[in-house]
Amino acid sequence: MSRRRTGLNFNKHKRKKINVGIFREVFVWTAEILLTVMVAMILTSLLGFRISVVGASMSPTLENGDQILVNRFEYKLFSPKQNDLIVFLPNGNEKSHYYIKRVIAAPGDTVQVKDGNVYVNGEPFEEKAAVAAIENAMLAEEEITVGEDEYFVLGDNRNNSEDSRYTSIGNVKREHIIGKAWMVVSPWEKIGFLK
């Protein structure tokens, strides 16, 4: 009879090898996901954000409840120009909802509403949106000169819009402008860039 040797056998349990390729791939994927999330958060906070339209003052261009993206980077480089849709806080009031209006006149321009039509620097304003004749000129009944770093704005729904014709809003100061209304993201059928 042969005798079996008993004792410790170190060859019985082989060490498992760590698959370095899989470990590296998991690490790279995790790093890429984290980097993508960080870049998205930075771009969103620096370049833009999403808001809901409140009210019908921009109808038919924008309706109550539409979701839009606001580009807050563009006006760090360039000034708002005529027909831009700007987003601002009226008189800088941070407790107010964001207002969206169309720029009609820039610093140094004159504005007046006569016979339901808007005149900038004595010339009829070239509208980018279909708008009704203005029934109440209010402050713009007399010619207004837009001050330095100010903008005269109107809603596209001219007879249902609280805008620069009202003393509560007046000309919008550049420092109160948050950004440019850039794109509709909801509802689905209206998705697209704003003009």
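That was protein one. Protein two is written in the same sequence-then-structure order:
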Amino acid sequence: MKKIFLILIVAVTLIFYNCEEGLEPQLHGTLSPVTFPSNEQEYELYMLELYKPFLGSWGYQEPGTSWTNSFFSPERGHIVMLDLPSDIFTIFSQWGGFWEGQSTCNFDYMLNEDRYQSHFDKVRFVTRATKIIGDIEKAQIRQEVKSHLLGEARLARGWIMYFLLTYYGPVPVIIDYEKVGNEEAENDLTRPSRETFVGYIADDLRFAADNLEVEPDEYGRFNKGLALTLLMRLYMNEKNFVNAEAAGREIMSLGYSLVDNYHSLFREATEQNSETIWAVSCSEDDETKNFNPIAYYCYPDDYAGEKVTKGGWGDGVFMVTWDFYDSFDPADERRLFVTEYTRIPGAVVAGQDAIRSRTSNPPLRGPVCIKYLDEGNTTSAFRGNDIIIARYADVMLMMAEAINNNNGGPTSEAITLVDSVRSRAGIGPLPPADVASQQAFNDAILRERGWELYLEGVRKTDLIRHGKWPSALAAVPGKNTSAPELCPIPTYAINNSNGKLEQNPGY
């Protein structure tokens, strides 16, 4: 049952917002807040506008503006922003531009991004969320309906701010409804302290967790587990391990469990299961809806997939390093890669090998990732496999890390959490050396997270939290080992701030 994004299409057609140079949302068209929304169903449509940054489509377009990437778009989405610039993935220079910049960890290109390319412009979507939240708070509707709608709306606002914090650090936002439209507030682009900004996010996610169901009636809607997982990630990355552990224990009480087969998590037939907390609900029908093109970005263009016979795009964008592949236990069921393949007819030219491998001519930059299989009923690149964003194995590994840091070393509970994830993968428990000290266990957890969560958009934040950025990049030739942890604030925003918006270090 995938209703949520059909409802969202209706919501988008009803609500027309645009933003000026500052942070203020402007209402256009014939609808007025005086007449719309006016009942519970219309307030629900009003709130669903806030799902737009979390679509899995190419992006979204605001009336009268240019195209904008969502946080899970194929281009400039979470995998490009947080996995590609890491020690796991090879350099992809074939297309230049942001692809090369991200894969080499040279982020200077972002200085010249315009407002519609840059995720930074979503500071204005935060203002939109604040406007919608304030309007719902004033709505004359049943309290239980109001609380639920506010839970979804505040999760959306908190999640947007979480991504902005991850990419840029604290940024200027408006979270006070009374300041929306206030000229002085709109023009003040002073960055808040990190403590203040993290507090905004935590407050929103905590409210969402307290007001959302574990299992919404409609698949794809935000839920309690997602709110708590995001809150746990926030606290982990802030090294607030006490609060992270508390959030983790709440999640562990909600009834999630590991599935038996790791690969089944990423297959369309088994995408709804006991482990997946939240995923982008995808359809293979056409590319105007949420779809999953990840396999195409993994396959080289001379590779034949299960259903698609013409290969992927380019020479395999999301291709892991051979060192990463070799780091797996050979028995590990999470090692979902193809190390050699017969090239599709017509791809072989004189002097080139028909079978591509690590040593062929031309050689593979790395193994082909088949985590998201090319399967379904069509021959297009747009698959129906839901894109996993939060799942219980991630929570278990974060929980083990939090316990380890809170107790000065590994406990039996923490070790069991990691060993359970390993057991599902078909490999044995951690060796004694990996649990001999707090540092050894943290290092083991970081390795485990790489094997478990590659291509799921968490690697860069993991490396930073563990103090391995940028030292881990040194293992991949061509990566920028002096890369700043944060992306640059785009020049357009600096220029529009009247000297109040400070640039991040390193740019």
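The mean pLDDT is 90. Keep this in mind for the problem set.
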